[in-house]
Amino acid sequence: MSTSTLAPVSTPTLKPLPFDPSKLKGLSERLIRSHWENNYGGSVKALAVTKKHLAEALAAPDMPPYLYNELKREHLLRTGSVVLHEYYFDNLGGSGQADAGSRKALAEAFGSFDAWETEFRRMGTGLGGGSGWVVLGFNTHTRQLENYWMADHAHGPAATLPILVMDMYEHSYQMDYGAAAAKYVDAFFQNIQWETVAQRLEACCRPPAA
Ligand SMILES: [Fe+2]
């Protein structure tokens, strides 16, 4: 197979914040702007560079496969970072008041809405001082809604679509709360955009066609 032609590269682009960052409760504009620009924005730029290098490396016949895979590792991490940050910012900027449909769906999946919230909060607090993500996800294989722990951008559960995403990297809260991760989790809950969550639930969790 010829490798002399560079494959087309789709360049990732920054997605604007879907809310006014000066209007969040308990999360400062400075924190949100820094997170969006430096952490999310940094991953968007790094993913673009990685994709360019991958295209060039694939066209190079003398590229050792083990070095090619170093780029694929970066591709995996950066893709996870970009996608999860976009889900995260998209599910912020709301009232924090869950709608009846979302409450019902979570109560059915977890026994009660409070049981879902207790576990989600506990997982977030448990990641304090470290890094990772808490993801309420719909597993398209088991057809279950579950809360998933993720140690980094690459630890996504198999066959799972994110419904609600909480960033637990320290850059998400350190500027406002220092090491007090639980206070950040409280602030996150006050700003959940439940309309977005409800739309994701509706898109994901419809029963399969008979
Ligand atoms: Fe982040």
UniProtKB/TrEMBL annotation:
One of its GO terms (molecular function) is superoxide dismutase activity. It comes from the Bacteria. Pfam families: Sod_Fe_C. The keyword Metal-binding applies. The keyword Magnesium does not apply. Signal peptide: none annotated. Residues 103-200 form the Manganese/iron superoxide dismutase C-terminal domain. InterPro entries: Fe/Mn_Superoxide_Dismutase (IPR050265), Mn/Fe_SOD_C (IPR019832), Mn/Fe_SOD_N_sf (IPR036324), SOD_C_sf (IPR036314). Keywords: Metal-binding, Oxidoreductase. Its EC number is 1.15.1.1. Belongs to the iron/manganese superoxide dismutase family. This is superoxide dismutase. It comes from Aerolutibacter ruishenii.
